[in-house]
Design brief:
344 residues; alpha+beta; Endonuclease III, domain 1; Nucleoside Triphosphate Pyrophosphohydrolase; 2 domains; three-stranded antiparallel sheet; 42% helix; 14% strand; elongated
Length: 344
């Protein structure tokens, strides 16, 4: 069955697979790496415009490595999971400094680079260097759990270990890059999370979930947990010229390395904060609160607009404060809810 699995999948891919994605045009290890990082937990349709902007701005890995981090974060704004962008920049610099600007071909070396986990490393090795290295992203997990009717949530260690073993068993020794793209395409186009198109699937004759009439039962969902809700104030501090104060967030944590509106706890006084760090408060107005959802919790944001009067010199540390002009915006990384508040 193992050999027939890859053979059937490759025949389907030759006729129905995706062959016209932007990173497949004049393909290179650099484009493969960039696209695989962007595709982590993000759909192809969302990634494409970001990828095109990145390649236009940074046609080579060295240009990405030499770029200012603010420029990288600016181009990533809206794509989410911002640690990927920080790791992408660090990874480019390590490749420039230690591998003469060329991605290493060894799986162990790839995995040791920032932001490249086991599945991403395997995807780069197979697609860019035609190595027989199996991947296990969300699409592949869905295909394999259905084909083999694997019980249990794929995030559990024992289930994931079983899936890795199956993924490697099905991985052919030839056309490795095509096979990797094929199994991802199958999961993205036919073996989808809902409304799977089983009758068009090349694997339907041997799919155990289909035989059991339980396709929608696989893969098992993650056990539900109540997502906590946190609350915070975001201060829109506007000086008389119309510019808005932005604060550089720490490199780790939510919106790490991005420019954001100053944040306070609910029991902290915006007026006291502004008077302490900026100057006189002329006017203060609360805006409608709204919720922003992260993977592990939700943040209920309470925006407070403050008109600044006479300023004093007791501002934040040099390099930690930016006066942002919404009419002539600087190219800096902004979290999506901050960007929307700046341009209301």
């Amino acid at each position: 069955m193992t050999n027939s699995f890859s053979a059937k999948l490759l025949r389907w891919f030759d006729q129905h697979g995706r062959h016209d994605l932007p990173w497949q045009h004049q393909a290179s290890p650099y484009k493969t790496w960039l696209s695989e990082v962007m595709l982590q937990q993000t759909q192809v349709s969302t990634v494409i415009p970001y990828f095109l902007r990145f390649i236009e701005r940074f046609p080579t890995l060295k240009q990405l490595a030499d770029a200012d981090i603010d420029e990288v974060m600016h181009l990533w704004t809206g794509l989410g999971y911002y640690s990927r962008a920080r790791n992408l920049h660090r990874c480019a610099q390590e490749i420039r400094d230690h591998y003469n600007g060329e991605l290493p071909q060894q799986l162990e070396q790839l995995q040791a680079l920032p932001g490249i986990g086991p599945s991403t490393a395997a995807a780069i090795a197979s697609i860019a260097f035609n190595q027989s290295t199996a991947i296990l992203d969300g699409n592949v997990k869905r295909v394999l759990t259905r084909f083999h009717a694997i019980e249990g949530w794929p995030g559990k260690r024992e289930v994931e270990k079983q899936l890795w073993q199956l993924a490697q068993e099905h991985m052919p020794k030839k056309r490795c890059g095509d096979y990797t793209q094929a199994i991802m395409d199958l999961g993205a186009t036919l073996c989808t999370r809902s409304k799977a198109q089983c009758q068009a699937c090349p694997m339907k004759a041997d799919c155990q979930a289909l035989a059991l009439e339980r396709v929608q039962d696989f893969p098992y969902s993650k056990p539900k947990q109540n997502k906590p809700v946190k609350e915070a104030q975001l201060l829109i501090i506007r000086r008389q010229s119309g510019e808005i104060a932005l604060q550089l967030r720490p490199p780790t944590g939510i919106w790490g390395g991005l420019w954001s509106l100053p944040e306070l706890k609910l029991d902290e006084s915006p007026e006291d904060f502004v008077q302490s760090h900026f100057g006189e408060v002329l006017a203060q107005q609360k805006r409608d609160k709204f919720k922003h959802v992260f993977s592990h919790y939700s943040l209920l944001i309470h925006p407070v607009e403050i008109q600044l009067g006479r300023e004093h010199g007791k501002i934040m540390e040099q390099g930690q404060l930016l006066w942002y002009n919404p009419h002539f915006p600087q190219e800096v990384g902004l979290a999506a809810p901050v960007k929307s508040l700046l341009h209301l």
